[in-house]
Write a structure and sequence with these properties.
Low-confidence stretches: none
Oligomer: single chain
Distance between the termini: 62 Å
Number of strands: 2
Mean pLDDT: 90
Helix content: 55-70%
Radius of gyration: 21 Å
Strand order of the largest sheet: 1-2
Order of helices and strands: HHHHHHHEE
CATH superfamily: Nickel-containing superoxide dismutase
Shape: flat
CATH architecture: Up-down Bundle
Number of domains: 1
């Protein structure tokens, strides 16, 4: 009795030990009606920046001290980890728009929508797998294309503004 009381106060149900709950991941199936491609663009910019940093990173020369080699490997690992996380984020944001926001009416009005989303997801995957800056730039361009289509579905004009990030490039935003 005492153990189950303590576990409940910790938010653990005894039955969870027998059949642990399955994690569920979702954006919002209410639907909340709050959609914006901005986060996908920021994630794509981050992927680009990580590839830029990887390209700038110089491998230590042969025979370098162990600490220098460890530092190099640590930086590579950190850049790749951040890149993976933001690739996942960009992909997730685009999939959420595709699955939860875009409708059959949008596809009728914008016949290239399906291929644009498909090409964007493919470009994000290609950028994730490699380290070529050009591939990350292509992924960003594709994400920007989806952003422009998104705002067109809302009859909203867009502007491109400098990202002001170290990655450079632009963000597609709704015009004021």
């Amino acid at each position: 009795m005492f153990v189950s009381t303590v576990l409940r106060r910790l938010g653990i149900e005894v039955g969870d030990w027998i059949a642990p709950p399955v994690p569920v991941h979702a954006h919002c199936d209410i639907p909340c009606g709050i959609y914006d491609p901005h986060e996908a663009q920021l994630a794509a910019l981050t992927v680009l920046r990580m590839d830029q940093l990887l390209a700038e990173l110089k491998a230590p020369p042969e025979g370098a001290p162990a600490g220098e080699i460890e530092k190099y490997h640590s930086q590579c690992a950190r850049y790749v980890l951040v890149k993976e996380r933001h690739s996942d984020r960009a992909e997730s944001e685009i999939v959420t728009l595709w699955a939860d926001y875009f409708t059959a009416d949008h596809v009728k009005k914008f016949p290239d929508l399906t291929s644009q989303v498909w090409n964007t997801l493919q470009a994000i995957g290609k950028a994730r797998r490699g380290t070529a800056v050009a591939e990350a730039e292509d992924a960003l361009v594709q994400v920007q294309g989806v952003a422009e289509l998104f705002w067109k579905t809302k009859d909203t004009k867009t502007v491109r503004v400098p990202s002001k990030s170290k990655a450079g490039h632009e963000l597609v935003l709704p015009a004021a």
